[in-house]
Amino acid sequence: MFEELAEELVAELMHGFAGPARPHSLKGALHRWSMIQVSQTIPTGVGETVYRSHEDGHLITFAQADSPGLEIAVGSRFLPAPRSLDSMLIMPGKLAELLTGGQIKPMYHRVRALNPHQRLSILFFADIDPDRCEPWVSEGADAAACKAHVLTNAARFGMPGFGLE
Fold first, then answer.
1. What integer pLDDT is reported at residue 11 of this predicted model?
2. Nearest to 42 by CA among 94, 115, 97
3. Which position has the higher pLDDT, 14 or 117?
4. Phi (first) and psi of residue 98, to 5 degrees
5. Cα torsion angle, 150, 112, 5, 97, sign
6. Tell me: the pLDDT tens digits for 35-47?
7. ∠123-128-134 over CA atoms, to 5°?
8. Which of 49, 61, 100, 126 has its C-alpha lying 20 to 30 A from 6's C-alpha?
9. Is residue 33 helix, strand or coil?
10. Per-domain residue ranges of the chain
11. Residue 147: Cβ within 10 Å count
């Protein structure tokens, strides 16, 4: 379900940047280069930063949690992310920036413990097959950098060989 939704969203984004002349089928392009993660965090104290400010590095991340705590960087401040159990937040990552020549910026975020109880979240990290990772704009984007980013991002998250089997 996440993969199909991500494919449709990414195809629409690509079409918006690259124009109608570019074929925009990404069917299967995310399959081996994306992952789902269920994360349980148990804070040691209310107010602590569970995950420091970061961007996920992927093309896009879908995020949903059962309690508040995700905060989005807006300038030099962090604001609570919109949250609903019947919706997901979609956050662009570094790969979106690379594909668009910097027109889409990564969404920096952090997670803070806002209550003493565990926080459960589901995350879907979507990337494009490096061999199909062509920039969406003609200026300011580099196909080799996009491909290299996808290949090294998997290793960054402790998954050497991810997608290569």
1. 87
2. 115
3. 14
4. -65, -40
5. negative
6. 898 988 887 877 7
7. 145
8. 49
9. helix
10. 2-156
11. 18
Which amino acid, one-letter code, is at 70?
L
**What is the SS3 string spanning 36-57?**
EEEEEECCCCCCCEEEEEECCC
Q: What is the pLDDT of residues 65-104, one digit of tens each?
A: 998 889 999 999 999 998 887 889 999 999 999 999 999 9
Alpha carbon 52 to its chain's center = 16
3-state class of 62 per DSSP?
strand
* Type and span of the H or E element at 15: helix 2-18
| Residues 107, 91, 93, 151, CA torsion sign | positive
Please count the CA atoms within 13 angstroms of the CA of 152 that sit on its side-chain side.
9
As a dihedral over the C-alpha atoms of residue 21, residue 144, residue 98, residue 156, rounded to 10 degrees, the angle is 140
| CATH architecture of the domain with residue range 2-156 | Sandwich (2.60)
What is 71-134 written as a DSSP string? EEEETTEEEEPP--TT--EEEE-HHHHHHTTTSS----EEEE--SSS-EEEEEEEE---GGG--
